[in-house]
DNA sequence: GTCTATATACCGATAGAC
DNA sequence: GTCTATCGGTATATAGAC
């Protein structure tokens, strides 16, 4: 909206590019990726669609800007698993680390969880190994030479972690460390059943 | 494609209407609801888009035909919860029943899970209490006068059950009764933590 | 960097012949 | 019940002035 600009940064502290990304995340989260138009995103920011194209080359580029930081974080974590021995303490540490980044990126995570098909379709072959990264995490959690039952429980444990993305809606007045502790224990309980 | 028809039923045993529903489920599951066109559905069946409209009044009507049976099943289960005492045996029975219908409807369930935003948007106000039904289930599982921690664990337990929808991909050679037993115990473990 | 105006394409849905 | 043809709407994306 013609705000004063110094080398690409709005004086207020947030660039137009960032404002577009934030508005798009909000819109994609509520209406879905396919059902959100770039005109709506531009309206939310207070610019026109044509101006938006100055900052992002395409709708998919905008989506990538939103989710790439989280994907990179997950990728780094998963690729590091190869060097971590599968001990009970390390399993606990790995789950805790994933839980922390899930909580930190919960808004983007919820978008990916609730609009998976549309996003996967839009990204096409840009992240061909994304699902494989998730499977690798499950396989690492299950441990070497795990049987089918253990692999199923490892997948269920990962599902428990995804509860973190909805935690603000479910228990809004609970502090984040407590949520982390509860879900960590729950996931470990699924992975190592008492009975 | 002009197959002989007796009172709405193709002689082969499956009506065109059913074929459209099945093709749509397949297409919606892979490409998402918004990104799937009725032209593609019609092409998969071998008819034109106009013929499809003879069987279903709108794209949303087609979606409803796919998901309504599962929704009705869930609704019946949740509305019956009011009359069930919250005892450990009943909690186990309720989880088992939900697990069974989740497994029975896993293809439709996976569609709803992976394309939530688009489907909720398309349905609009047709099922205004759908999310509330899920919350009621979580609250019943947590029990009367439950604290925030228990409610969070009840939600996580429901997430464990959703693993059933992916079970065929994760452990394809495991029989369904074993999957049911494993996930039932996992969900109970989350709800009643040992530590 | 932002604008107006537009090219191009596909969508859901309908009309009407057969 | 299925078809061809088309309407009205909206989407992404671009051209070019300022």
Automatic annotation (TrEMBL), chains A, B:
Domain HTH tetR-type, chain residue ranges per copy: 14-74
Regions recorded as binding DNA: 37-56
Keyword Lipid metabolism: no
Protein origin, superkingdom: Bacteria
One GO MF term attached to the UniProt entry: transcription cis-regulatory region binding
InterPro entries reported for this sequence: Homeodomain-like_sf, HTH-type_TetR-like_transc_reg, HTH_TetR
Keywords: DNA-binding, Transcription, Transcription regulation
Gene3D superfamilies membership: Tetracycline Repressor, domain 2
Name the UniProt record assigns to this protein: TetR family transcriptional regulator
Organism field: Nocardia terrae
Lineage per the UniProt record: Bacteria, Bacillati, Actinomycetota, Actinomycetes, Mycobacteriales
